[in-house]
Amino acid sequence: MAVRLTKPAKDEILFVALGGCGEIGMNLYAYGHNNQWLIVDCGVAFGDLTTPGMDVLVADIGPLLDGGGKIVGLAITHAHEDHIGAIPHLIEDLDCPIYATPFAASMIERKVDSYGGRDVELHRVPQGESVDIGGFNVEFIPVTHSIPEACALSITTPAGRMIHTGDWKIDEDPQLGRMIDSDRLAALGREGVLALVCDSTNALEDGHSGSEGEVYPGLLDLVEKAQGRVAVTCFATNVARVTTVARVAQATGRRLALVGRSLHRLYEVSKENGYLQSFPDVVGEDAIGRLPREEVLMLVTGTQGEPRAALSKLARNEHHDAFLDAGDTVIYSSREIPGNEVDINRVRNQLAAMGVIVLSDGEEGLNVHVTGHPKRDELMQMYQWTQPSVAVAVHGEARHQLANAKLALACQVGQALAPADGDVIRLRAGQEAEVVQQLDLDVLGLDGSRLIPLESEVVRLRKRMMHNGAINVAVAVNARGNLVADPVMSSNGVFETPEEDEIEDEAADWAWDAVDRMSRADRQSDDAIESVVFKALRKFCKNNVGKRPLVTVSVLRV
C-alpha cells in the first residue's frame, strides 16, 4: 500500500520534491504548513529511447491529490519549459490559482490555449512584490537568468522562512531584465532563513558562470568572418541570447530571421511585456531563399537535436522555407544537456555531411555561450547572503546535488540535504531537518492526450517491441477445435530481410504443429490455444534469431 502524504502541522514546514531531484528538468516542489500546500513550479522533462511514444514527461502529483492537506496555489519562478511545461497537463487536477510574473503569465496563457485547456485563475505578480497564498506569504525576488523576470521565492510562514532560488546566476551585465537583488537576499538572511532550497546544476564547476555581455564579441567575430548564410541555434527561451544575436545582425548588416514556432511565440510575449523594444525588424521564413546568402542570419530552434525542431529539419533538408548549403555556417550558442549527446551529434553530422561549417562554444577557444546557472563561486556567495540554517540541494542529478550540499557545509551552513524525488523533509526552527517520509512516485508520460505511468504495462510492451520486435498470428479453428487454414502471421522488427520469408513460414508451421499436438478437449479453449501458440513462437524465435519478441495470438472460431 502506498505511503499517504502526511498533513503538515502548525509548527513545521514540510518540503517535498515531486520532480527536479536526481534529474535535470521536471521541476515540481511542494511546501506544506498548517494543513496547506504551496506548489512551486510545474515543469516537464523530455523523453528518450526509454520512453517510446512519449516526448514529454511530467511529475506524479498523486500524493498531493490523495491527501495531506489543501493545495492553495502554484507559484512560478520563471517561464522555462522545465518549470511551466506541465501546467496544461496537471492544472485541472491541481485545481488551484497560479501566481507568476507578467512575462511568465503570458507564456502560461499561450501554452494553456495551445493545448485547448480550460481557463486558469492566473495572478500576475511583478518582480519585487509579494502576495499571500493561503497561509504562505510569497515574495518574488528578482534574480538573473537567461529569461526575463526570473525570481527566487521567499516563502514565509509562522514556522519560518524558506527561500527557493529557482534558476539563477550572478550577472553584472545581463543584457536584458533586472540584476539579482542581492541586497534583498542579504536582508532576508539577516532576518533569518530556515532553509535555502537551491539550484545545483553547475555545483561541480569551479569559478563563475560568466556574463551574457561576454557572448557578443565572440558571436560578432564569427559572423563577420562567415561566408554564406549563418544560423545560430540557442535555447528558444533564452531571450537575452536572442537580443545578443539581434545586435550581431545589426552590426554585420545581415537580415535576421526567426526559424521555429517557439521563437516566434517568445518574440510576441517579449514585445507584449515591454522587452525587445529596439529589436530590429525580422524577415519571414519564406523570404530567406530570396535574400543573398551573405545577408542572412537565422536564429533557429533545436539546439538539443530535437527531431521536429527547425535545425533538425534544416539538417535533413526538410524545412518548407529555410535551407542551408555547403559553405554556410551553423553556430551552437548553447550547452549540451546531459542525455542529449546522441541527438545533438546526429544533427551535427548531418550538417557536416552537407558541407556546412559547424561551430560550438568551447571548441578551439570559442566563447559564444554562458550558462544560466550558478557555478561554485556564485553558490558560495548565495550562502553568504542568505545564511540559512539548512541547505536543500535540488535541480540537478544526484552528483550535482551532493556537490552543492557539500559546498554548503563548507560555507558554514549548519545542515545540508540532497533529497531524492519523494523525500518529505520536516523543517522546524531550532531543530535538525529530517526526512520523515519517502513517497513512492511514478513518472508520467504524455501519450497522445493522456498521461500514463512509465511503469505501466503499455510502456513495458512498447519497450519489448522496440528491442525485440513483434509477431501477430491469427489461428482459425472450427467448433470441434480443428485448424481450418494455415495460421496467418505478420511480424515487425523480427525477421530482417525478405529472404527470411522462409523462416517466417517455418514459424507458422510451428504454430500449426503446436495446435495439432493439443488434445481435442484442450482445443475447445481459446485461452489454451493462445498459450501453446505463444510458447511455440517464442521458443522458435529464441532458437532461430536469438530474440524473444512480443507475440500476440488471436483465435478465430469459424
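The record above closes out task 2.4. Task 2.5 opens with a second protein, given below.
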Amino acid sequence: MLTSFFLHGFVAAAAIRGSRRWQGAASVLLSLLMPVVTAHTVHAQEPISAATEAVGAAPEDPWQWLEDVGGEAALSWVRERNKVAQAALESDGTFAGLRADLLAILDSDERIPGISKRGEFYYNFWRDKNNPRGIWRRTTLDEYRKAEPKWEVLLDLDALGRSEKENWVWGGADLLRPAYDRALLSLSRGGADAQVVREFDLTSKSFVADGFALPEAKGSAGWVDRDTLFVQTDFGPGSMTDSGYPRVAKLWQRGTPLTAARVLYEGQPTDMSVAATHDDAPGFERNFVRRALAFYNSELYLLDAGLKLTRIEVPNSASTDIFHEWMSVELRDDWSVGGKTYQAGSLLVTRFDDFMAGQREFRVVFEPAANSSLAGSGFTRDFLYLNVLEDVKNRLYVIDRRTADWKPVPLVGAPAIGTVGIMPVDADESNAYFLTATDYLTPTTLSLGEIGQAPEKLKSMPAFFDAAGLQITQHFAISDDGTRVPYFMVARQGMTADGTHPTLLYGYGGFEISLQPSYSAGVGRAWTTQGGVYVVANIRGGGEYGPRWHQGALKANRLRAYEDFAAVARDLFARKITSPRRLGIQGGSNGGLLVGNMVTLYPDLMQAAVCQVPLLDMRRYNQLLAGASWMAEYGNPDKPEEWEFIRRFSPYHNVRPDGKYPSVLFTTSTRDDRVHPGHARKMMALMESQGHAVLYYENIEGGHGGAADNAQAAFMQALAYTFLRQQLMSGK
C-alpha cells in the first residue's frame, strides 16, 4: 500500500485547504486507487535523558552505536545482516517468481491513475517499468474518459535524476491559482521526509531560473501570490523543534534572500511544528497559522492583511476546516460552549465570520453512536458530505446547505457495501465529486458524480488475482476487559475448521487511523490464493469507533491495543481457523511497535512475525528523529512516572535471553528520517546476540515507506511473503 502521502492524484487537494480532514480524505482516496501489494501501510499522521532501570536489558545500551545511521561500522553491520537474509529468502524457489509478479502488478498500465483537477487540466503522478521514479503529467477529462488517454508529460523524474545525478523521489506539487502556470515541486533524496522545494514553470516545463528554491529540510512552502510564499523550513540553528520540524513560519518575497523573510510566528522548541497556509478560494481568500504543540493539540490563528494574528477559539484537540463562509469543527473531546455541551466525535458547523465575532451557536451535523464514527467530511459548492463508519463499514450522506433543516440524506448512487471514499473535484466551483469503491477482493472503481445524480464510472482496476472461491467475513473478538474488537477475514469459502490454515494477522492500532478493506493485489497474489488466510484486526488505538477507540489505547492504556490483538488471535484459535504454529503477524511503523510487543509479550500466540520500519526502543524513541512528536500518543519516557508504564510496551527492554520467541524478520530503511532505523537495528542485534531466530534487511533508500520505487517495493514485499510462507506453510 502507499507508504507516504505525496501528491499523487487526489492528494493534491490536501495542499489547497491544509486541513487534516482534507488530507485524510485525499489520502484515503489515493490508497483505494492503488493495487495494494502489501499489508504494510505507513500513515501520514504518524509515526514519523537519564539512565533508567530497564526490564530485561542492562541500563547501558551496548547497541547504541547502531543509531549512527550512516556510520561505516553500522552500515557494515547492516550489509552483513542483509546478506544473511538474502541468502535465506532469495534462494527460495518461489522468490523470483513472486517478486516478478508483484513488480508486474505495481508497474501495470491497467492501474487507475489518480487525478486532481486544477483549472482545465487533471494532474497525475505515475510510475511504471519504463518510469521507475515516475512522471508528472496532465490531461483533460475527455481524454481521461478514454481507455488510453493522451497525457502531456510535465516532468520526467528519471531523466531529472540522471541529469542531476540525484536519486529524486516525488514529494508533491502546489500549483498557483488562477493561471496554474507555476508550481512548487517537492523532491526528496531516496524517499526521505526531508525535501527540497523548487519553482517550476508549467509552460516551459522547466525549473524557473532564479526562482523560489528551498534547501533540503523537513519543511514546506506554499503560494500566497505569484511573488510571495509562506515558508516554514530550517532557517538555521534553533529554528527547528525537538521533533525535527519547523518552529518558525515566515513570509518570503520574490527577489529577496530567504534570510530576509519576515517572521509571522515563532513556536517553542518543545512544539511539534508551525506552519502558515493560504486559502485561495475566490472571494474567501484568507491566511492562517497553525501551531501544533503535539498530536491532537494545535492552536489555529487567522492572519489578517496587517499580519496580525487572532486565535480561533476552538478546542486544541479539535480538527477544524474553514470553507468559504463556513467553519466545521470535529471534536475529539467533549466541548462545553455557548451554554451547551457537545459530544466527542461530533461534527459541528457554523458561519466563520459569526464565530470570530463572538457567536457560539452550532449545527450538530453528526453525533457518534456506540457503533459509528465519522470517517470523513468535506464541502462542495452547495453541500456538506459525511462519510460515516458503522462497524467499520462506510455510509455516505450529503447535506444541502441551501435548505433550512440541513437534513442528511444518503448520497445517490453510493455503493451499499465495501470501502467507499469521496473527494470533491473542485469544491469552489461545483458539486462534482470523485468516488472510489473497493474491498479486499473487489478491484477498485473510480466514478465521477454530481450530488443528486447517479455517478458515472470512469475507471476500473483489473483483477490482479483470481478471487474465485474467496470470501470476506467480519467477526468480533472479546478482549480482556470485555471490549468487542472487530476484525475482517479473507479465506476460502467452505474452509474446514480444523485449526491448520496458515494465517497472516495484520494490525496497526494507533494515531486514530482506521483499517478498512481495500483491494490487496499483493496479499491476493502472495497469500490468499496460495492457501493462506488473511486477517485485519481493528484494535483500539485506531479510529474505527472515533476518538474513544483511539483514546482507549493512549499512553498508560497502550497495552489495551495488544490485548485486543491477542484476543483476535485467540478467537481465530477458538474458531479453529488456525493455531499458534500456523499464525504469523505483520505491521509497520506504529504497527511495528505492535508486532514487537506481540513477540515479547505474547510469544506463544504465533510462529512468525514481520516487523517493518518499527519503533522498538521506547526509552529513547523521543530522542530519535521525529520521535518527540509522538509523546502525546505514547508518553514521555524522560518522566519517571511515565517511563513506568512505557517500559511495559518497550519491546527492546522486554526481550529476554531465556525467552522462546517466534521467528522474526525486521525490515527498515537507511533513509527513513521519521522512525529511526536504529530501532530495528538494535532489536535485531539484541535478539541475535541472545540466540533468537531473527533475520534483518535494511533498504538503503525508501524513507519511511521502505522503498523508493516499484522495484524496491516488490523486492521488500517478496522478502516478507517468502519469509511468512517458509515459516507457516512448510513442515508440520
